[in-house]
Amino acid sequence: RKESSAASDVYKRQEFIIASILGCAIKSFPAIAFEQATFSKCPFSLGIASGDPTPNSVVLWTRLVLNPSKSDGGMKANIYHVNWQVASDPNMKSIVKSGCSQASPQLAHSVHVDLEGLTPDTQYWYQFSVNSHKSSIGKTKTLAISNTTQSARFITACCQNYTHGHFTAYQHMLNDNPDFIIFLGDYIYDKSFGKSVRQHESENQPKSLDEYRLRHARYKTDRHLNKAHANIPFFTVPDNHDALIDDDPEKYQQRIAAYQAWYEHMPTRGYAGIGTNKFTFHRQIQVGNLLDISLLDTRQYRDQERLPDNNADNSYGFGNYRKLSTNYYAHNRSMLGNSQEKWLFDAISHSQTCWQVIASPGPFNPFKFYKNKQVLRYIGSWDGYPAAQKRLIDTLKSTTKNNTIILSGDVHSFWASDGMQYADPKENTGVIEFTTSSVTAGWPKALSQPISDNLAVNPQVKLYDPLLRGYMLHEVSEKIWTTTAKAMRSVLSDNSDAFIRAKFEVTNGVKGFKEITE
Q: What predicted TM-score, i.e. pTM, was given to this entire model?
């Protein structure tokens, strides 16, 4: 009996260790053996990454993969010990942190090291190793604390369809040397959507965990994305092509699979655990007393996007631009869900930084489409949730902040919108919005032309360019905010050069922005 009890204690300790790794109960999983790694080649084929930095912490990521074309990565179904080191120098001589994590097959042999006890506003270098195999050396940086920074530079990017072109934009992001990148959704695409420059591993839409793992692995093999992840910390949130909108209970299992695969490939926190249909994506990014960025999750909790409407014209903008029926105006209709909306409004009211920023995957400022003497809206944006949109506008107007800047994505085009310049002054939102174009994903004419046709009746839009792919660079000081729309000459080239499409300057305390010509 004593021997049996001791064995039971050992097994319980193993359960606790593995449960800690997975962030969920392990008792439903079969026992898994630990194995000393003896790989014939380097298992760090998907690279390394860092993300979710705070003043004293950052998440380090890698995944052991011998063969990216296999859903299990070509790995045995064992747990492997993965060593990691963090240094204060690029040669990894001055080690400040080190440890050993475990890569489990239950999470595709991914590793997430939530590293704490770091120094604010400091660069670090890091490296993983398994036996004699070492990853490349990565670089990351913690955020500043109050009164320690006078400037910041960061990037917003979104919508990278692997099949539409090369991720050359990341090479130019590296050259810009940002403190971090905010990626606003559609990190992967579930479908090709048109003519392909490169091929997904399959033309089928991912539905199972294995299929989502294969899709993510394909994206991680892009050399430009791989290098950017190794050298710049990312904040990431998903959009509709990463994971399904939660409208249909019959597709819950598919979204559960999408969430797990997304976590397995992202340097992030917030995963609720294997088998759960939720993920905490929204977070606060505070850079000293300079910036307070509320990064939103506009997909997981939004009310149904396409409400039943027999009068909708599905030939116009693929049915995305439509006259809002009465149900769209319901008072309780929400883009964020009650809990996240309260969190956002609390963050706005308590913000003490120079600049108040909201990072939203979808566009915020209203835009009117006129068709057959009717006013239409883009239902996938905040315009499709007018009550929620108004609640946020009212909250922003009730604060003492002179400038609120919203950074958004989704619409595969460059926008600059001055919320004080609507045709009817009663419609003024007071919000400046800079919308980044896509890294590669195209913007079809059926979606782009209706916007172009209605620019004259939307004078708040000072820039709209649907033809160019790229990203936005934001350079911030206490007094001046500068946003630069950086465009790729051609995403068809793996070595495309970049150029400045437009540049805007905001002065703190002064309404609106001005375009800078160089």
A: 0.93
